[in-house]
Write a structure and sequence with these properties.
This protein is 68% helix and 10% strand. The protein has 111 residues and is mainly α. The protein has one domain. It has a two-stranded antiparallel ribbon with strand order 1-2. The longest helix is centred in the C-terminal third of the chain and has 20 residues. It is elongated and about 45 Å long.
Length: 111
């Protein structure tokens, strides 16, 4: 049986795309750690605060993108990411090595 090109291979939580679209620019405007572990913790925390938006077709993906245009939808995503940053910043789970690398890179940028 041939797969319809409009069908995704499995359900996709479109909200992940939306969170990752905004994640780096919001993190860049804060003083939180930017290591991969903290980024993923922030994304996971934010996603757990937001409603799932599962799609199984490209048409569903287009519909979800239209929802994204609504101001409240975008505001909810940004608020969830900002809250996640606050939580992760207070309770980082990265290794001390990451902190050393972060501090070294900051001192290199100052010079």
């Amino acid at each position: 049986m041939a797969e319809n090109s409009n069908e995704l291979t499995r359900p996709k939580n479109y909200m992940e795309d939306v969170v990752f679209k905004h994640l780096d620019s919001i993190i860049a405007s804060t003083d939180c750690c930017r290591c991969q572990r903290c980024r993923m913790d922030i994304a996971a925390y934010a996603l757990n605060q937001l409603p799932n938006k599962y799609v199984v077709t490209r048409k569903g993906e287009v519909y979800s993108k239209m929802l994204e245009l609504q101001q409240q939808f975008e505001a909810d995503v940004i608020i969830a990411i900002v809250k996640a940053i606050e939580v992760v910043k207070k309770n980082p789970r990265h290794d001390d090595e990451v902190l050393v690398e972060k501090n070294e890179s900051k001192s290199e940028q100052v010079q």
